[in-house]
Amino acid sequence: MNKKLMYGTHAIGEAAIQAGCTCYFGYPITPQNELPEYMSQRLAEVPGGVFIQAESELAAINMVLGASVAGARAMTSSSSPGISLKQEGISFLAGSELPAVIVNIMRGGPGLGNIAPAQSDYFQATRGGGHGDYRLVVFAPASVQEMADLTFHAFDVADEYRTPVMIMGDGMLGQMMEPVIIPKPRKGKKMPEKDYILTGARGRPARLVKSLILDTKDMEEHNWKLVRKFKRIEERETRWEGYMLDDADMVVIAYGTAARIAKGAINRLRREDANLRVGMIRPITVSPFPVKAIREAAQTIKDFFVFEMSTGQMVDDVRLALEGQGTIHFYGRPGGVVPSARELGRSIARRYYQAIRKRKQ
Amino acid sequence: MLIKTIFSGFGGQGVLSTGQILAQAAMLQGRFVTYLPSYGAEVRGGTANCTVTISDEEIASPIASEPEFVVALNQPSFSRFQNLLHSGGFLLYNSSLVEPSFVRGDIETRGVPITELARQIGNVKVANMIMLGAFIAVSSLLSFDRMLKHLPDILGAGKAKLLKANQEAFERGYHFIEEHEHGD
Amino acid sequence: MKKVYQRPRSLRDVPMHYCPGCGHSIIHRLIAELLDEMGLRESAICVPPAGCAVLAYYYLDIDMVEAPHGRATAVATGIKRVRPDNLVFSYQGDGDLAAIGTAEALHAANRGENITVIFVNNAVYGMTGGQMAPTTLSGMKTTTTPAGRNPRSEGPPIRVCELLQGLANTVYLERTAVNSPANVMKTKKAIKKAFGVQQKKAGFSLVEILSPCPTNWRMDAVASCTWIDEVMAREFPLGVIKEVPC
Ligand SMILES: Cc1ncc(C[n+]2csc(CCOP(=O)(O)OP(=O)(O)O)c2C)c(N)n1
Fold it and tell me: How do strand C170-177 and strand C239-243 relate by DSSP bridges?
C-alpha cells in the first residue's frame, strides 16, 4: 500500500470518505479549516456527497442530526469554541441515539483563547459536555496515521452502538503532515441494520426518533439503557497503548500530542540513563477511559506521572482509576504551549529520582 | 539521528512547498518525517515558515525549539530564526536578498545567491529549488541522487511542465555548494 | 506652523496587523476621527467581532469588550440597556453578522435597540483564510467553494441592509465603500449620521461598508478597489437604504 504525506485534517477527511461518510457540515474555525476545505472538494466527487458550509456550528451539528436520522454517515468538525456551540446537538444525538462523528481540533482556551494546540477540552468531551446524563465515545489520536485509522473506525463504532463519537485532536496534529496509509473499506463487514432511520412510512409503521420522554419512569429507564450501552462500549472498545512497561517503576500517562512528546522524553531518558526505568500508558480512548490498564499497572508500579497540555483534567480520571493507590505527579502546559521532549524529560527525571529518594527515607 | 530544519521567508517565495518537497523526499527514502507549517493569521501577515523533522526513529514533536538547520530566504527570517538555532547549528541564507550582518558566533552560515542563479537558468520561479539543492549539499540529510530520481513523483503530474526547470535548479544549487567548497 | 493632519486621539499609535490594501484600517481611522470630532471618545463603548478586526481593541483607544463570534449585537444590547447614555456600537464582519450572528443582529434590529452596527462586508471570511461568506458573490471562488458559489445550493449573497429594511424598528441603514477617496468620505458621513441617530435615541442604525480583501480575493490592492466598483457594488448597491426622519 502506498504511503502519502498528508495533513492531519486531510487524513481525517479522506478516511471519512473511505468509511462511507457522504455528508459533511461545518463552519470555519482555525486550526481545522483545511478539513472543511478538503471535504468541499472531495464530496463533490462522491456520488450523493453533501457538503454544506453552515451558518454556524449550531446549524452544522443539527444538519448532522438530520443526515444521520435519514440514514447517512455524517460528520462535522470544529475547534474548541465551535465545539461548545455543538454541545446542544451532541446531547440531542446522544438522547436520540443517533450515530455521528464529531471532530474537535482543540486550541487554547477558555473563550476565544488562541489557535495554538491545546488539550483543554478534555472535561467537555469526556464528561458529556452537553446537558443530561450521557457519555460520549472519545478517541484521542497521536499521529496523522491514527487520525485516519480512528476516524475510519469511529464511523463503525457510531453505527454499531448508535452513538455520537468524537475524534479529539489538537492544532498540532491537525496542521502537521506525516506519512499515512489511508484505510480502505473492508468487504463483508457486517453492520447492524439501521431499522430506526426515517425513509417515509411506506409499507411499515411510522417511525419516531426523539429524546423527549415525558414519563419519568421511561426517561429513567432510557438513562439506564444509555449506561448499559456505555458499559458495553467500555468492555469492547476501550483502547490504550502500553510502552516500556515491563521493567518500569514509573508510568507516564498522556494522550494525543502530549503522549508523543512523552514517548520522545522516555526514549531520551532511557538512552541517557539506564537506571531510569520509565514507561507509558497512552489512552487511545479517553472515554471510555482505560481504567483497567492503569489499575493493573498499579499492582507493581507506585508512581504515575500525568502530563497534559492543560492545567490538569485527565489527571482526575487517573486519580479515580488508582483509587488511592500510588502517587500521582502532574505536569501541565496549558494555553497552547507544546513543550519539547527534552523539557518534559527533565521534569520526569526530577520526579523519578525524588520518588526513589523518598522511598529510601 | 533526528534533524530539524526551519524554512522561512516571504509568502510567495515557495518556503512551504520547499519544506513539503523535502518531507516527501524523506518519506520516499524511508525515513520518519513530519512537516509543520506556520498557520493562521501569522501566514497572512506576509511571512511564512515551516519545520521539517527527519529522523531514524519515531518523531516526538514536529516543533523545532532548537533546530539544527535554518534556511532563510529573506532578511526578517535571517534575523528571527538564527536566534533559535542550536549552538553549532547551520544557517543557510539567500544572499541575493539577505545582508548577513549581526551573525551569532556559535553557528555556521552559508549564503547562496539563489535569485541570480535562477536567472541564469532562466526561471526565477525555481529559486526555492536551488536553495533545496544547496541545503541537501550542506546537510547531506538525504541522498541527492535518490531525491533527484524521486522528483517527478514528488512534483506530480500537475508540475510536469516545470519538472525540467525544477530538476535543473535542484542540481544547480547542489553543485554550487560543491564548487564553492570554502564559502563565498 | 499649523497642524493640518495628525493621528486622532481615539486611535492608538501602534502598527496595525492588517494585510496591505485591507479596508479595516481605513474604517478604524474613520471611526476614530468621528469619535474625536463628535466628542464621543469618552462615551464610546465598542464591541469588536471575532474576525480580522478581533484586535481592534489594540487600535481604538476607547472602552471595548470582546464578544463570542456573532454575538456582538446581543452583547451591545446588554451594555446599552444598562448604559443608555453611552455611545454603543458593534464592529462586525459579514461572517460574524450575517452567518453565525444573523439571529442576534436581526432581533437587535427588530427590538430597535438604540445601537449602531458598523458592518464590514468583504465578501469572504478573512480571518480564517478566505472561506465563503454569506455575502460571497455568486460564482465567486473561495476555499470552501472551489467551483465558485452556486446560488442554487449555497444561496445567493445576502443583502443585509435590504433584509433589515423591512423591520419596523430600524431607523438608518446605509451602504458605502472604502475603495476611493470619495467613497471614504461618504463612509465617514454615513457613520456620523448613524452615531447621530443613536445620540438622538432614535433607534437601530447600521452602516454596511464594502471593503477590499486583496489577500483572500487574490488580487492586488488597486484591482481590489476596481473590483468593488465594477462587480461588488452591482450586487450590493451603494446609498441610503432606509432613513426614518428623526
Ligand atoms: C464559535 C466560533 N466559530 C468560529 C470561529 C472562527 N472565526 C473567527 S472569525 C470568523 C469569521 C471571519 O469572517 P468575517 O466575520 O467575515 O470577518 P473578516 O475576518 O472577513 O473581517 C470565524 C469563522 C470562532 N472564533 N468562533
Answer: antiparallel
Binding site membership of A82 for ligand 1 (Cβ less than 6 Å): yes
Strands A285-287 and B90-94: unpaired
Closest ligand 1 atom number to CA of residue C216: 20
User: For chain C (length 246 residues), average pLDDT per consecutive 10?
Assistant: 91 94 97 98 97 95 97 98 98 98 98 98 96 98 98 98 98 98 98 98 98 96 98 98 95
Cβ of C143 within 8 Å of Cβ of A37? The answer is yes
Q: Is residue C199 part of a domain?
A: yes
Angle at Cα C54 formed by Cα C52 and Cα C60, nearest 5°? 110
Mutation choice for ligand 1 from C128, C143, C178, C216, CB with most ligand atoms inside 8 A: C128
Integer angstrom CA distances of residue B63 from A140, A306, B52, C124, C230: 20, 21, 9, 31, 45
Instruction: Please name the residues between 19 and 58 in chain C that touch chain A, using a CB distance below 8 Å.
Output: 50, 54
C111 part of a folded domain: yes
Task: Tell which CATH classification among 3.60.20.10, 3.30.565.40, 3.40.920.10, 3.30.930.10 matches the domain B2-179.
Answer: 3.40.920.10
**Residue written as grid cell 439503557:** A225
**pLDDT of A1 higher than 70:** no
CA angle A270, A274, A275 (to 5 degrees): 110
State whether B46 and C17 contact (CB < 8 Å): no
Q: What is the pTM of this model?
A: 0.95
Distance from CA of A54 to the nearest CA of B (A): 21
**Residue A352 C-alpha, separation from nearest chain C C-alpha, in angstroms:** 43
CA C225 from chain centre, in angstroms, equals 17
DSSP-derived letter for residue A186 is P
Domains delineated in chain A: 4-237 (3.40.50.970), 240-360 (3.40.50.920)
Going by CA atoms, what residue is nearest to atom 26 of ligand 1?
C69
Identify the residue among B4, B22, B63, B84 best suited for mutation to test binding to A, counting A beta carbons within 10 A and taking the highest: B63
Q: How many CB pairs under 8 A join A and C?
A: 51
Q: Which helix (H) or strand (E) holds A67?
A: helix A57-69
